[in-house]
Design goal:
Blueprint (H helix, E strand, L loop, with lengths): L4 E9 L18 H14 L12 E7 L4 H12 L6 H6 L4 H9 L6 E5 L4 H14 L5 E8 L3 H9 L10 E8 L5 E11 L4 H6 L2 E5 L2 E5 L4 H10 L8 E7 L2 E10 L1
Parallel strand pairs: 2-3, 2-4
Antiparallel strand pairs: 1-5, 1-6, 4-5, 6-10, 7-8, 7-9, 9-10
Helix pairs in contact: 1-4
């Protein structure tokens, strides 16, 4: 039984989105939800040149809280106005649209799964990906969280008394593998869910405790982004204990560093 190692951990912000040149033509009609996922995955895979040699043993696990939200409303707007709906636009409105593009563009021939949940979608995807590698079903996999929002969501947050500040769109991507055994090994991940009022998912009062640091996480992508940033720091070569808590549950993540 081989537990997975984290080969790459990257984050792409919506405000600094750069489309990889080799995919520009294929992403011409894609929305930001898809583009962000592809950009993050491309950045992670640039750190792992052996990916193409392991395509058949590779998998994909995507998590998202709100999915391609604005694209959903674009499609619904056409339907309500009794206008013709573009098949391409409709295909981009489903939550596993990013997974479809990632699988095609990066030749991912193993299992693919999209998790849609307001609480900890990245870490649910991470647990599934780690389990697939530990069981021997996959040799490596991408774990992605991507988030985009809509004006309606911003308005809903404001109506509940939440700050007018908007959540940053973006994507986080980790590459897990059983092939390279240098860096952080995922020793344990545990996720609990607790019943919570809908307003808790709009206010996002998550708190991240990682080693000796306490970091607030006020947006759906914050926790995954902050942990990725911690792993990317220079001279961080210690074991990591990470706990995330919120009114809707908790995450415990233990990473062991292997020199």
């Amino acid at each position: 039984m081989t537990k997975p190692f984290i080969t790459a951990a990257v984050h792409v912000e919506g405000t600094s989105l750069v489309i990889p040149r080799q995919f520009a033509a294929q992403l011409r009609r894609a929305d930001d939800f898809i583009k962000l996922a592809v950009a993050a995955a491309s950045m992670a895979l640039d750190m792992h040149p052996r990916w193409q040699n392991l395509a058949e043993g590779s998998g994909l696990f995507v998590g998202t809280a709100f999915g391609p939200m604005q694209t959903n409303f674009d499609v619904l707007g056409l339907i309500v106005d009794e206008n013709q709906t573009s098949p391409t636009l409709f295909s981009h409105s489903v939550f596993n649209s990013a997974a479809g593009y990632l699988a095609r563009l990066f030749s991912i021939q193993g299992s693919s799964q999209t998790f849609t949940d307001f609480s900890y979608p990245f870490f649910q995807a991470l647990a599934a990906g780690a389990g697939a590698i530990t069981s021997g079903r996959l040799k490596q996999c991408l774990v992605v969280q991507v988030e985009t929002y809509s004006d309606l969501l911003i308005d809903a947050r404001q109506r509940t008394g939440q700050s007018a500040s908007t959540w940053e769109t973006g994507a986080t991507c980790w590459l897990l593998t059983s092939q390279d055994k240098i860096g952080w090994r995922i020793d344990d991940i545990a996720i609990t869910h607790s019943p919570a009022a809908a307003i808790e998912y709009l206010h996002r009062k998550e708190s991240l405790h990682i080693n000796r640091e306490d970091i607030p996480c006020p947006a759906p992508l914050s926790a995954a982004m902050k942990v990725s940033g911690f792993l990317s720091r220079e001279n961080v070569d210690t074991d990591i204990d990470c706990t995330i808590t919120a009114p809707y549950g908790s995450v415990g993540l233990k990473l062991l560093y292997n020199r």
